Structures are given as structure tokens and as C-alpha cells.
């Protein structure tokens, strides 16, 4: 555990200076401190940059300086990272960013401590042969819990939020536990703004370009030889959406990725494939529809039609949940601002022609 020494604020009343005297944070296990602080204190430097605080270590004491709200946030993030280390889990740049993100989104210190600790709760960890996966935002925590508790889950939001990655991770985890017999990963074969033309090769070679991101997720979860073995024996199947027609998928974990590029007829066909002891996850980004103009997205149709139905879960990610390079987050925000201005009549957005 940790101990915290909180000095009083400088000044008093509503006009008090938000900058407070340094707060002292101590950690019980000295052996974990080097892992928490990072080589040459690189983890502390990253937290300083992310949260706008100053961190200084001396012996078993860590001093946190800065505005009161930023100090509170840094304290929550550091405690969460220390608890992760106590459980034997690694801490790297991704975990630093995740803890900082969770702490920033916490509404107050009491709720915040619970929310940040939620990052490493055992009931939302996903374990595969290669990884121990914890959520990196509140929405990811809600998503993993939905994957645990619902047979049908819809996840919408921008790229880089972990929608597909976490779904594949859950599918692999359940397959390894013997709770499902097979995994079926599917995408609609829609060109993303390009004209690919004739594709040479056999059937598998023709559809591979459309489903390659799903292969990437599989190889991140399992050793390459296991992926190849399970693909060849049918335990894992990667196929375009058209191959789902006429099938009833029992004892399976089924993922439909890039679902914004389905038509309403295709979406209905897919959803009605759900069989006994099966799970379905539908992921997509409604701002990235590549269907012909005036064609309504099947994902948009399903969200509007089914959002109030019991037994389903809907998780909506935003740009706050984007886990990729910080520049990607800024790019997403820039495009969203542009689209918002276009919708308000302040500009022309040629891509908004009713496609979703």
C-alpha cells in the first residue's frame, strides 16, 4: 500500500491559489519503486508531461508539486500503477498513458480511486498466451465487462480505440478456456475509397486484403504457429461477410468488423446467424462509411433499431479513448471538428451525402 501526506492549500477561501505545497507519496515496497519510476525516472517524466505536475523522488518518498487538481490526478495515476506492479504486471509507456487517462477522467478523488483501480480489476482482465490485457480507458473497462456478460455487443467509435483488438482478445481467451469451439472473424468486402480492380490468386488470396487487420490481431494474441494451426483445422475462420449467409453459428465467438460498411439487409442476415452458446460482437466507425452515396449503413440501422432492446450491450467510444500515437488522436479531433462545422453549415463536406 501507499501513504500520502497532504499539506493544506496556500491561502484560504474561494480565492485560494490552486497551487499547493508539495504532496508526499510513499510506497511500502522499495523493490517496486525502480519499476514504477522507470529507468532514469522516464516514467515520472512522462507523467509530468501528461499531467502538468513536477515529480521528484528522494529515498522512499515521491514529491508531487503543481496545481491541486493536477496533483490529485497524478496521485491517482501513481497509486494505480503501483498496484499494477504489486500484482506482478508490467508498467510501460502504454500503462502510464492509460493510468493518466483514467485519472484525468475521474470526477473526484473518491470515485477516481475506484475508477483508476478498475484498470487492473481481475474480473475485466483478458488473458491470452502472449498477453495480460487490461483496459486503458473507462469505456474499454465497460466494453470488456459487456463482452463478459452479453451475447451480443455493439461497439462504435473511431479507429484506435481497441474495439476489434479487445473483441479478438476475448474470443481467444474463451477459445483457450474451452468455452467456445471456434472463432469466426468477418468483414464486409468493401473498398475503402479506392478501386482495387481485379485481384489475382485463389479465393483466400482474393479476400485476404479485406480481412488482414483481423489476422494482425490474431498474431498479437497467439504464437504464429498456433494461429496457422487453428486456421487450418477450422478453430479460427476468417471470411468476408458474404460467407455467413445460410449458416447458423453455434458454440462460436463471432466478430463482425468494419460493420459500418454493411447494408441493412446484410446486417440483419448476420445478426440472425447467432446460434446456441455463441457470442457476437459488432464493431464499426459510423464516421468512416465507404458505401455508395445514399446507401444507409447497416450498423447505423441496427443501432437505431435495437438500442432499446434488452439483452444487448452498446458501447460508444470517442476520440478520448484513442490509444494510438498522440498525433492520431489530434487527427481524429481535427476531422471531427471539420465535420461538425460542415454539419452546422460552416463548410462543405463532400463525404456527407447521406451514406450512413
Describe the structure.
Helix 2 runs parallel beside helix 4 (93-105) and helix 6 packs parallel to helix 7. 41% of the residues lie in helices and 17% in strands. The protein is α/β, with parallel strands linked by helices. The protein is globular. The longest helix has 19 residues, at 68-86. It has twelve helices and twelve strands. It has a six-stranded parallel β-sheet with strand order 9-8-10-11-7-12, sandwiched between helices.
Give the helix level as a range of percent.
40-55%
Order of helices and strands: EEHHEEHHHEEHEHEHHEEHEHEH
Beta-strand fraction estimate: 15-25%
Query: Mean pLDDT, rounded to whole units?
Result: 80
Number of strands: 12
* Structure classification: alpha/beta
C-alpha Rg (nearest Å)? 23 Å
**Which residue ranges are poorly predicted, with pLDDT under 50 across at least 5 consecutive positions?**
8-17, 108-112, 191-196, 348-356
Main sheet makeup: 6 strands, parallel
Shape: globular
* Major β-sheet strand ordering: 9-8-10-11-7-12
Q: Given the structure, what is the number of helices?
A: 12
Distance between the termini: 50 Å
Amino acid at each position: 500500500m501507499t501513504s500520502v501526506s497532504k499539506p493544506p492549500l496556500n491561502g484560504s477561501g474561494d480565492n485560494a491559489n490552486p497551487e499547493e505545497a508539495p504532496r508526499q507519496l510513499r510506497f511500502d515496497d522499495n523493490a517496486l519503486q525502480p519499476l514504477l519510476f522507470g529507468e532514469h525516472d522516464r516514467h515520472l517524466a512522462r507523467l509530468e508531461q501528461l499531467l502538468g505536475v513536477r515529480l521528484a523522488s528522494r529515498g522512499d518518498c515521491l514529491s508531487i508539486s503543481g496545481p491541486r487538481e493536477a496533483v490529485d490526478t497524478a496521485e491517482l495515476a501513481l497509486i494505480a500503477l503501483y498496484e499494477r506492479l504489486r500484482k506482478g504486471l508490467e508498467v510501460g509507456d502504454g500503462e502510464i498513458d492509460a493510468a493518466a487517462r483514467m485519472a484525468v477522467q475521474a470526477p473526484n478523488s473518491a470515485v477516481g480511486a475506484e475508477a483508476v483501480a478498475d484498470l487492473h480489476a481481475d474480473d475485466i482482465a483478458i488473458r491470452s498466451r502472449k498477453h495480460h490485457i487490461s483496459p486503458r480507458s473507462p469505456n474499454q473497462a465497460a466494453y470488456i465487462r459487456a463482452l463478459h456478460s452479453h451475447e451480443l455487443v455493439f461497439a462504435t467509435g473511431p479507429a484506435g480505440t481497441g474495439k476489434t483488438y479487445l473483441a479478438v482478445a476475448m474470443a481467444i481467451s474463451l477459445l483457450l478456456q474451452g468455452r467456445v469451439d471456434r472463432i469466426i472473424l468477418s468483414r464486409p468486402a468493401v473498398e475503402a475509397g479506392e478501386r482495387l480492380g481485379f485481384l489475382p490468386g485463389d479465393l483466400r488470396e482474393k479476400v485476404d486484403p479485406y480481412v488482414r487487420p483481423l489476422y494482425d490481431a490474431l498474431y498479437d494474441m497467439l504464437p504464429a504457429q498456433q494461429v496457422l494451426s487453428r486456421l487450418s483445422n477450422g478453430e479460427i475462420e476468417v471470411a468476408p461477410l458474404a460467407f455467413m449467409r445460410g449458416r447458423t453459428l453455434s458454440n462460436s465467438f463471432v466478430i463482425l468488423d468494419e460493420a459500418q460498411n454493411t447494408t441493412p439487409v446484410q446486417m440483419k442476415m448476420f445478426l440472425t446467424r447467432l446460434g446456441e452458446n455463441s457470442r457476437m460482437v459488432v464493431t464499426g466507425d459510423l464516421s468512416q462509411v465507404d458505401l455508395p452515396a445514399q446507401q444507409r449503413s447497416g450498423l447505423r440501422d441496427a443501432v437505431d433499431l435495437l438500442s432499446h432492446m434488452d439483452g444487448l450491450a452498446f458501447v460508444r467510444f470517442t476520440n478520448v479513448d484513442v490509444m494510438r500515437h498522440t498525433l492520431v488522436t489530434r487527427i481524429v479531433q481535427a476531422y471531427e471538428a471539420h465535420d461538425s462545422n460542415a454539419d452546422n453549415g460552416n463548410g462543405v463536406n463532400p463525404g456527407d451525402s447521406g451514406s450512413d
